[in-house]
Amino acid sequence: MAAAALDNLNPVVRERENVRRREEVPGLGSLASGAGPGTSAEDERELIDSIEVFEHIRDIADPEHPYSLEQLGVVSHEQIDVDDRGGKIEVRFTPTVAHCSMATLIGLCIRAKIMRVLPPRFKVKVELSKGSHSTEEAVNKQLNDKERVLAALENPNLLDLVNKCLAPTEC
Amino acid sequence: MGAESGLAERLLALGDARDEDEVDREQRRLEVAKDASDLVLQGRLSLLHLVAMKQTKHLLTSDSKLARTEGTLLLAEVVKGTLTVLKKHEVDHVLAFFCERLKDWHTLRATLSGCRALLGNTEGTGGSGGIKKMAAGSDGTLSVSEGTRLTKENAKLLARSLFEHVDVQSHSQPNRQLCFEIVDALLREPYDEAVLELAAAGPVASPPDSSGSRDEAGEDLLEVLVRFLDGEKDPRCLLLAFVSIERAVGLLRGKGGRELDLAVVRNAAALADVLSCYFPLSFSPPKDAAKAVTREDLLEALFSCYCSTPSLFPHLIQLLEDRFPSPKSETKVEGLRLLGYFLEKFAGDLRADYEEHDEKKQELEALVDQAWDLLRAQISQRQDTASTVADASCDVASRALEALGKLADLLGPCSLKVVDLAFEDAEVVAALAACASGPSGSEDPPHRPKSKTMAHCRALEVLSTVAGSSVLAFAEVLRRTREAVDVLQGLDREPILAVHFVFKMTLALGGLERDASTEGMEEFRVELPDLCRALLRLLPRVGMDAEDDFRTASECLGALENCCALRGDWIGKEVVEEVVMGLVEFSLSPGGAATEDHGVRVALVVSRVHRVHRDADLVDRVIRRTLEALAAGGEWEGDRALLMLAVIAEERCELSTDIAFKLTHRAVLDWGHGSGPCSRVTSSILTKIGTNIMPHLYKCTCDHRESGGTLKPVSKIVQNLIRLLERALAAGHGEEEGVLRNILCSLSYTTMLCTEEMRAEYAAEAVGLLASGEEALVVGEISTSRPAAAAAAAEEDAPLLSLNPASEVAGEARHLVAAAVLTPLGVPLPQGEAEDVLHALLGGALGAGTDVAAGEISVALAGRVNGLGSSQVEEIVVPLVTEVLLSHVRSCESGEGVSSGLTALAWIARALAMRKHKATDAVLDEMFSVLCDPENKGQALSLGRTFSAVISTEHDALVDTWGWTAKLLWRQKLFVSLSSRLFARLEQNKGEPDTLAGLHQVFSHLVKSVHFSVLKPSAKEVVRHLVASVPLLLSRDQAQAAGALAANLETLKTALADDAMRGVVEDEVGEAVAALVAACGAGRHNGGRSSALLRRRALECIALLVRLPHHVLYPFFHEVRKQLDRCLDDDKREVRSVAGSTMRAWRTL
C-alpha cells in the first residue's frame, strides 16, 4: 500500500507489555513454600478473564501497518471486561486516528478471533472506545449486528483479509 | 623424468580446459597440484623449476584470464602443500610474483589464496567456524604453523601491495574475506611488527583511484582499514574487519609510540563515521547454519572496535544521542551496554587526561554533561503501569543507571562535578523536597500519583548511584542531602521515598566502607545506630506495603541488612544484635505484617551477619528463639520458624548440623502431640530435613571434604532419626505423608556425612542388626522415661545405632535402618558377609509388610547386588532369587506378600539387567507370571507399577546418586527382551481388563524408557497398544492410572508427529479418535492438574491427527468438533489454550 494512502502515516509504536496476573508475579505469591507461580486450587475453575481475552487478540496484525494492535495501542487489557459466569465479553478498542477507515475491519478481526477461540456461550460486544472515532455509532452498530458480521465473514475477500490479520495470533 | 614430463602434459591440458565445467577443472587442478607438490616434497623438482617450466610459464603469463587464473591457483595450491620445504629465495620470488599479480583483477582470488598460503597455515579459515576462531583471537588463536616463511621485508611488501592495489569493496565476498583474512594475519604475530614499521615509516598506501601516483599523499594504516571496511555487509567479513581494526588500533596505541597514537586520534572521526553505520546492528543469522557468525559475535566485535581507543568517546556520545530516540528498547540497551564497556575500559585514561590537561578537562566535562543528560533522560523515561512488572524499559533504566554509576566513577576520585550535576537536576531537587515535606507538604502521599512517587524514587536512585562512585562523592552527597532533608524525620513522614533512599545509600556504602575515616563520614557513622533503630521501628508499619510496587518493607529490610553487614568499625556488635533480634521478632510475630518473603529475607540477613561478624552467640540466640516459636505450637509460627531455620541451614553449612540435630530432637519431643501420632510440626520438620537440609548438608560436606575440612559428628542425629523411625513404624503411619521415606532418606544422608571410620562402624552395626535375632538387636538403650540418664549413657558408650528393645516394631525398624545405612555405595560391606547381608535384606523386604518399607529395602538389596562380583552373583544372588524369593512369591497367599516379593524381584532384575546378566530373562518371566496370575488381578494396577521399577527412568537419579555401575546399552537390551514378553502377555490376556491395565502400566514405562527411534521396528504393535491403553486406563482409578496414561498420550503424540509412524496410526484411526475424544473429557470438573495434563495431551494428539489424509478423518469431523467446543470452555486455562489451537487446526481441515 502506498504511504500516501495510509490513514495514519506515523503511528506511535509501543512496546509489548508483560501482562501478568497478580498471583503470577514473583514475590507476590509465596516465595519459599514451593508453591509455584500461578498455582491455584487444584479443582477450582480458572475463570476466563480480561487477560486471557487480551492474550488472544493482542497479536492481531493491523491491516495497514506492520505492527500488532497492542503495539499501536488499539487494544489493551484494561479495555476488556469479562463476566465468565454471566457469559459476557465486552471489548473496546481505540483506532490510532479518529478518521481511521480500517476501524470496522479491526473490529471484525477482534470479533472473529474471539468467536474462534472462546466458547460460544459468550455474548460478545466489540465497540470503539468512547469518542475515539468520527463515525463511532455507525461502526459500533455494524460490529454488533450478528447477521452483518456473519455475512462479512462469508465474503471470501474479506475473510482473506481477516485471516491475514489473524495469522500472527495463530502461530 | 617420466613424472616431470607427465606433469608438463597435464599442465598444458590445464590451460586448454576451457570447456570443462568449474568442478571438473578444479578437480583436475587439485590433482596436478598434488602431483607437483609431491615432486617438490620429494626433492625431485624445485618450486622455481616448476614455475620456470614452459607449460607453467604459459599458464601464468597467458593472455587468457582463465589460464592465468588456473596457473595462479595451481601455484597457490603447490605453495600451500610445500610450505614447509620451501627455501627463502623461493618464497621471496613467489611472494614478489603474487604481490605484482595483486594488480590483476581477474586472478585476484587465486593470488589472494597464494598470499594467504604464504602467510602460514591457518586452520579452518575457509569455513565459518574458522572465522569464529579468528574472531576470538585476542589471545592469538590464529595458529600459524611452523612453516612461517615470510621475512619482515616480505610481510611489508605484501602489506604495502595489498593496501595499494586492492580496492576491497569492489570485489566479491570470497575475495573480500580473503583480503580480511590476510589483513588479520598480518596484524598478528610475527608479522605485526613489520606492519607497525610500515605504518611508522609513513603513509602505507595510496588510494587505488589515485592510479598509483606515488607523489600524492598516501594513507596511513588505520585509514586503509577504514576504507576496507566502509560499505562491508557480509557478516563474516565484518567480523574479521572489526577484529582487525581493534587489533590495529591496539598495536598503534600500544607499540607505535606518540606519532602513531596521533594517527589513531586523527582517524578517530573517520573510524567512528564508518562504525556508526553498524549500530544498531540488524542481522539475523540463518537458522540452519549452526556455526555461523551470530549477532552477538558481531556486536561484541563492534563494541571492541569502539572500545579500542579513548579518542572515540565524543563520537560514541554523539552516536548514542543520535540513536536513543529510537522506539526500540533493544537499541537503547545495547547503546548503554557499549557506553558501560567504554567507561569501564577507559576510565583511567580519561581521568588522567582530565587531571593533566586543562583543555581536555573542559572538553571532558562538556562530554560528561552531554552523557549525563542522555542517561538521565533514559532513567526518567521508564514507564510504570500497575500490572506491568518487568518490561523492557526497566532494563533500559537499570542499564542507564549502571552507566551513570560508571560515569560517576570516571570523575569520582578527582572531582565533584557529577555531584553538582546531580543536585542541579530538577527531579532530584523535587524528590528531596517531597521527602522533606511529608504529608504536610503540597502533595499528600496517599493522593500523589504513583508515577510521581516512582519518578522521585528514580531521582533518589540517581543520587545514591553518584554517591557510590567515591567516598568523596558519598560524603558530599550526604552533606548536601542533610541540608535539604532530615532523613530520620523523613522516615516517619515519607517512608516510601526515605526508605528507598536509605536503602540505596547503604547499598552504595557497601563498596566504600574501607574508607570509614574520611572526613564527612564520621557524622554518618555516629548516626547509624539511630538510623537502624528508626528503620526497625518503621518495619511493622510498612510491612503491609510489601505487595505494592514500592516494596518499602523489603527495602527497609535490605537497608538494615546492609547496615548490619558493614565492618565492625562502622557498626557496634550490640547494635547488630539489637537489629537482628528485632528482625527475628518481627518475622515471627503472629498477626504481624511480616510475610513469608520477609521471613526468608530475615533468615538471609542472619546468615549474612554470621558470615561477616562470625558471632556464634548471636546465631545461637536466633536459633533458640526460632525453636521456641516452633515449639509454641502455633501453625503459623511453626511454619515460619521452620522456613527460617531451613534457609539459615542452607546458607550457612557450618550451622546445618546443629540445626538438623535440634530439629530432629524437636521432632522426637513433638511426636504424639497433636491430633495424630505424627504431629504436624514433626511431619513438617521431617519433610524439611529429608528434602532440603540433609541433601544440602551432604553436598556442602562433599565440597568441604575435598577442601580438607573436618566433619562434625552426626551420631546424635542418627539416634534421633532412629527413635523417630521406631515411632513412625509403631504408629503404623506415615506412608501417605512420606514421613517414613523422609526419615530413611535423612538416615541415608546422615550416614554418608560421617567420617570413614564411623561409616565403617555403622556398616558393621547394620550388618550385625540384620544378622541378629529380633531380641538381640540392641546396642544401647535409650529410655524416654529417663532422658538424663540416657544421655549420660550415650556419652559413655556412644552407641551408634540404638533401638528400643521394648518396641514391638523393632524387627521392621532393624531392617529399615540397616537398609538405609547400607544403601549408599560409599558404605563398605564387610568382607565375607555378603550372603548374610543379602539374605537378611531380602528377609526384611519380604517381611516389611508395607510397600514403602519393602521398596526401601529392595533398593538397598539391589544396590548390594549391583556391587557384587560376577562369581558372587552366580553363587549368591541366583540361588537367592530362585530358592528363596520365587518360592516365597509362589507360596504367598496374601496380596501384601506378593507385592513385596514383586518389588524385590523388580529391583533385583534391574540390578541384573544393568549388568546384562543372563538370569535376567528368567526373572522377567517369573515376574510376568506373578503379574498375570488370575489371583492377583485385583491388585494388577499397583503390581504393574511395581513391576515398572525394572526399567523405569524415574529411578535413574536415585541410581546415579549411589554410583551404580551399568553396562553400555543395558536399557536397549532390556527393552528388547521385555517388550517381546510384554506384547505376548498383552495378547494372551485380552479378556482380562484388570490384568491388561497392570500390563499397560509396564508398557507405559517401557515405551518411555527408550529413545523414540527404538520403538520404530515394532511400530505397529506399539501404536495399537497405545491406542488400546487409553480407554482401558481411563476406566481405572484416575490417580493410579493417570501417570501411565499421560505418558502413553505423550508417546502417541510423538508417534503422530513422526511421518513413518503416522501411517500406522491411520490403520487404527477409529479407535484412536474415540479414545482421544474420551480422554479430552477426562475429569473435567473434578480432576485437578493431573487430569488437566491428560486433557491437554489428548488435545495435542487430536491437533496432530489433522496430518492424516482428509478422507480418513472426515467421518469423525463432527464428533471431534463437538468435543473441542466443550474443551474451549474447560476449567483450566492451559487446556483452553490448547483447545483453541487444536480447533484452529481442525478448522483448516
Automatic annotation (TrEMBL), chain A:
<feature type="domain" description="MIP18 family-like">
    <location>
        <begin position="52"/>
        <end position="127"/>
    </location>
</feature>
<protein>
    <submittedName>
        <fullName>Iron-sulfur cluster assembly protein</fullName>
    </submittedName>
</protein>
<comment type="similarity">
    <text>Belongs to the MIP18 family.</text>
</comment>
<dbReference type="InterPro" id="IPR039796">
    <property type="entry name" value="MIP18"/>
</dbReference>
<feature type="compositionally biased region" description="Basic and acidic residues">
    <location>
        <begin position="13"/>
        <end position="25"/>
    </location>
</feature>
<feature type="region of interest" description="Disordered">
    <location>
        <begin position="1"/>
        <end position="42"/>
    </location>
</feature>
<keyword id="KW-0159">Chromosome partition</keyword>
<dbReference type="Pfam" id="PF01883">
    <property type="entry name" value="FeS_assembly_P"/>
</dbReference>
<dbReference type="InterPro" id="IPR002744">
    <property type="entry name" value="MIP18-like"/>
</dbReference>
<dbReference type="GO" id="GO:0051604">
    <property type="term" value="P:protein maturation"/>
</dbReference>
<dbReference type="GO" id="GO:0140535">
    <property type="term" value="C:intracellular protein-containing complex"/>
</dbReference>
<dbReference type="GO" id="GO:0007059">
    <property type="term" value="P:chromosome segregation"/>
</dbReference>
<dbReference type="InterPro" id="IPR034904">
    <property type="entry name" value="FSCA_dom_sf"/>
</dbReference>
<dbReference type="GO" id="GO:1990229">
    <property type="term" value="C:iron-sulfur cluster assembly complex"/>
</dbReference>
UniProtKB/TrEMBL annotation, chain B:
<keyword id="KW-0234">DNA repair</keyword>
<dbReference type="GO" id="GO:0097361">
    <property type="term" value="C:cytosolic [4Fe-4S] assembly targeting complex"/>
</dbReference>
<dbReference type="Pfam" id="PF14500">
    <property type="entry name" value="MMS19_N"/>
</dbReference>
<dbReference type="GO" id="GO:0016226">
    <property type="term" value="P:iron-sulfur cluster assembly"/>
</dbReference>
<feature type="domain" description="MMS19 C-terminal">
    <location>
        <begin position="817"/>
        <end position="1105"/>
    </location>
</feature>
<keyword id="KW-0539">Nucleus</keyword>
<dbReference type="Pfam" id="PF12460">
    <property type="entry name" value="MMS19_C"/>
</dbReference>
<dbReference type="InterPro" id="IPR029240">
    <property type="entry name" value="MMS19_N"/>
</dbReference>
<comment type="function">
    <text>Key component of the cytosolic iron-sulfur protein assembly (CIA) complex, a multiprotein complex that mediates the incorporation of iron-sulfur cluster into apoproteins specifically involved in DNA metabolism and genomic integrity. In the CIA complex, MMS19 acts as an adapter between early-acting CIA components and a subset of cellular target iron-sulfur proteins.</text>
</comment>
<dbReference type="InterPro" id="IPR039920">
    <property type="entry name" value="MMS19"/>
</dbReference>
<dbReference type="InterPro" id="IPR011989">
    <property type="entry name" value="ARM-like"/>
</dbReference>
<keyword id="KW-0677">Repeat</keyword>
<dbReference type="GO" id="GO:0006281">
    <property type="term" value="P:DNA repair"/>
</dbReference>
<dbReference type="GO" id="GO:0005634">
    <property type="term" value="C:nucleus"/>
</dbReference>
<keyword id="KW-0227">DNA damage</keyword>
<comment type="similarity">
    <text>Belongs to the MET18/MMS19 family.</text>
</comment>
<dbReference type="InterPro" id="IPR016024">
    <property type="entry name" value="ARM-type_fold"/>
</dbReference>
<feature type="domain" description="MMS19 N-terminal">
    <location>
        <begin position="56"/>
        <end position="349"/>
    </location>
</feature>
<dbReference type="GO" id="GO:0051604">
    <property type="term" value="P:protein maturation"/>
</dbReference>
<dbReference type="InterPro" id="IPR024687">
    <property type="entry name" value="MMS19_C"/>
</dbReference>
<protein>
    <recommendedName>
        <fullName>MMS19 nucleotide excision repair protein</fullName>
    </recommendedName>
</protein>
